[in-house]
Write a structure and sequence with these properties.
The chain is an alpha+beta fold and 108 residues long. The protein has one helix at residues 69-93; strands at residues 3-4, 11-12, 17-20, 23-26, 45-47, 50-52. A hairpin with a 2-residue loop joins strand 3 (17-20) and strand 4 (23-26).
Length: 108
């Protein structure tokens, strides 16, 4: 059974064979999926069984949570509590002068 290159799908002979990412490649076909830069066993990065160079390996993306009623309720309660605290601080300092200096040395 002849082995087929994962990139070009042509027969790979033992002298030009490179086994990596659970696939067989021609040495010249082992390139970054994005930019086509030639890779070797020292400088490749694998992602979803495809070779990438350091610059083009896909970054992990943050997962997002669905807007459930419980999460909406928690967000609303957090917002309300924040407003309550801000309003209490405002009422406490209303009508009072607070000195703010551009340079901490002028306060001494």
């Amino acid at each position: 059974m002849s082995k087929k290159c994962a990139r070009c799908e042509k027969t790979v002979y033992p002298t030009e064979e490179l086994k990596c990412l659970d696939k067989v490649w021609h040495k010249i076909c082992f390139k970054c999926k994005e930019c086509g830069m030639s890779l070797n066993m020292r400088n490749y990065k694998g992602f979803n069984k495809e070779p990438y160079c350091e610059a083009h390996i896909p970054k992990a993306k943050a997962t997002t949570m669905a807007e459930t009623p419980e999460l909406k309720r928690i967000a609303e309660n957090t917002k309300l509590q924040s407003n309550v605290n801000y309003h209490a601080d405002f009422e406490k300092s209303k009508g009072k002068f607070t000195q703010v200096a551009d340079d901490p040395e002028t306060l001494r």
